[in-house]
Amino acid sequence: MSEKAVITLxxxxxxxxxxxxNLARSFRCWHDxxxxxxxxxxxxxxVPWPKDLSWVHRRVVGEGALGIGFSCKLxxxxxxxxxxxxxxxxxxxxxxxxxxxxxQMQGRSVGVVGGKxxxxxxxxxxxxxxxxxxLSSLPKFNGGLYxxxxxxxxxxxxxRARALEPQYDALGLLRLRNRPNDELLxxxxxxxxxxxxxxDDGSILGDxxxxxxxxxxxxxxxxxxxxxxxxxxxxxxxxxxxxTISPRVVHFLAHHTDQHPYRTQEIQLALMQRDSWPRGxxxxxxxxxxxxPARLRTWVKNLxxxxxxxxxxxxxxxxxxxxxS
Length: 325
Hints:
- The structure is a single chain.
- The chain has 325 residues and is α/β, with parallel strands linked by helices.
- It folds into 2 domains: 2-199, Spore Coat Polysaccharide Biosynthesis Protein SpsA, Chain A (Alpha-Beta Complex); 205-312, no CATH class.
- It is 32% helix and 20% strand.
- The longest helix has 34 residues, at 279-312.
- 39% of the residues are buried.
- The model has no long low-confidence stretch (mean pLDDT 93).
């Protein structure tokens, strides 16, 4: 077992495998893979592998071996390849060294980034859930990041989360994309084991749903900025602290992987690492190919949207490429 590793899952669809390649390229900007290994766990074994990612450890599992949807993340204890293992969702990008994350998490059998919740809504009524389970609070976090130190406590937490999954609906919890959400199951299991979330100061994990003001990111330069504006701003998210953060990991939830700036960073990273372009030229090409056209489309849409809706009404939402089962 190696000392440190980053792992991600690419299960069920080439869509997720493409995302995992982008994550690997962002990781490579900041790490010597001899010190921190990088692993992609996938059930797609017949897809040609990019030559620039020959350093990635590829582990192929059988179709359905890890479950479906978010259930796969409940198997991480069985997949952890290192004494310190950091799991990142495939739709993340790394904007700096992850060594400080390993340092901050060290000693935690299971680590997450967030806070705690005692009431309110989080895929269900938390007050009622705590009463049912005889708990005082739950760790609340983004399941795009889990930290594991294999051992009895880690195995116990994941085993408990797996055992809770069949009770998901009976516990009054709401499904995500028609599947049980791993975050709630892991949260309950961690709370029962006395584990809490690592309180993040904005330096570890961020996402553009919590911070909806214009995201600025340049992975190769290590530049990243997300902002949750004050309450008077319509983009304010009341459940997230007000302010600007610069996280090392950005989690591009939902539709954000199909838009700028994620797609622009995807192109830039591929040109630099797959095609050996210099950073400046790759950045310019990515901006011309996707960044500038995307911003122009958004500007035109925002300008014409009121007229379109008045004449044609509201368009139906396009189906997501993310798996729904």
